[in-house]
Structure formats: structure tokens, C-alpha cells
Amino acid sequence: MGKLIVIEGIDGSGKSTQLGLLKSALAELGVAYRYLSFPRYDNESSLFVRKYLRGEMGFDPDAVNAYAASTFFALDRYLSFHDDWGAFYGGGGVVITDRYTTSNAIHQAAKLTPAARPAYWEWLYDYEFAKLGLPEPDAVIMLDIPAERSVERLRARGGEFDIHESDFDYLSRCADTAREAAAALGWATVDADAITRTVHDGIMRKISEVL
């Protein structure tokens, strides 16, 4: 089997910038890899994801419960693995992803009470990795950032916001849940509020432990 490395973090954590630097660094090192980003908004498998994030099921993220919403995102990943990158990964390839099952572990668990989250995480990992057969990551690197800074970056970026990005209370819960998930599920964390190069160096140190 190959290696699966996930870069995770709430909206506005700087994933796009860091993934750009990471791809350049891997190319310089001569590492052959596939890059994936979830959800796949331009693919029909993300239909329910798009309807959910556009607010067609309710503008409050909590309008769709954690378990139901998780299946929307999981189906997109399942079809991606089946149709696109499964053979590459199975042949020993390195796969880098922007979000993965770990995004459900943050954004959907944030809808639950802290006491209910461990049972949800157990269900999620069993559902996606055991039941659906998706590969479990070799490393998850979570870009940790305060919700306030996330909002500042989102506003600076501009554009239209989905129901997650436009709800500060929900973003705040996600920031807290991300830290809880990282501790509970064994993810590595990098301070995403540091300068760009420092964040990149932290990511590369974590990746060097896997590759």
C-alpha cells in the first residue's frame, strides 16, 4: 500500500497556501505523489454536499445532524477512491489530501456535545475505514488556528460563504473540536497562526516522519 497524508484545519486556517508550498517541496525532493481536495465540488458525487453547504437543507449547520451530513461527504470520498486514486494508492503511491474523513471528525462532531463526540469518532472511523474500505491516513497534520483569526482571513479572502463559513458560533465550535479531535485521534498539530514559512517547516518535519 501507499502513503496517505492529510492536511486538515478549519476554514481560513491557510491550507491552500500550505498545500501549495508542500507540493513544491515534494516536487523538489523528487517525490511522486497525487494531490486530492475534498469535497469534489465539480463532481456529481458531491451533490448532497453542495445542497447541504448551500443551505438547501437549512441555513443553520445544525439543521442536518452529524451522522446524516457525514454520509454526504463520505460518499464523495468513496467514489473518488473507487474511480480515481485507489489503484495509485494500492500500488504504493503517495497521496496528499486537502481534507478527508478528518473533516467530518471536526465539522460534524462540532454539532455534538463533548460527551457525545468520542462515540461519534468511533462510529465515523468504523464507517469510512472499515465499512466503506477507505484507507486510513498514515499522518494527519492539523493546522490549528483560533476562530477569530479564521474569520479575519475569510473576510480578507472575500467571495461567497457557505453555511459553515458564515456562522461564527459554528466556526468557534469547530476550532475547539479540532483540538479535541487531534488529541483524541492522534493527529499532529501545527500552529497555523505563525508566519507562513514557520508553518511550512512544521508540516515538513511531520511529513518527514512518514515518507
What would you say about this model in short?
Strands 2-3-1-4-5 form a 5-stranded parallel sheet, sandwiched between helices. It is built from 8 helices and 5 strands, in the order βαβααβααβααβα.
What does this protein look like?
The chain has 211 residues and is α/β, with parallel strands linked by helices. The chain has one domain: 3-Layer(aba) Sandwich (Rossmann fold), CATH 3.40.50. It is built from 8 helices and 5 strands; from the N terminus they run βαβααβααβααβα. A 5-stranded parallel beta sheet has the order 2-3-1-4-5, sandwiched between helices. The longest helix has 25 residues, at 66-90.
The percent of residues in helical segments reads 40-55%
CATH topology: Rossmann fold
Sketch the major β-sheet.
Answer: 5 strands, parallel
Return the string of H and E elements. Answer: EHEHHEHHEHHEH
- Mean pLDDT across residues: 95
**How many beta-strand elements?**
5
Rg calculated over all Cα atoms: 16 Å
Strand line-up of the largest beta sheet: 2-3-1-4-5
Q: Low-confidence spans: pLDDT under 50, at least 5 residues? A: none
Question: Based on the structure given, which CATH architecture is correct?
Answer: 3-Layer(aba) Sandwich
Note the quaternary state here.
single chain
Our measurement of the CA-to-CA distance between the termini, rounded to an integer number of angstroms, reads: 13 Å
Quickly name the level 1 CATH class. Answer: Alpha Beta
Number of domains: 1
Shape category: globular
Q: Beta-sheet strand percentage?
A: 5-15%
CATH superfamily: P-loop containing nucleotide triphosphate hydrolases
Structural class: alpha/beta
Q: With helices defined by DSSP (H or I, 4 residues minimum), what is the helix count?
A: 8
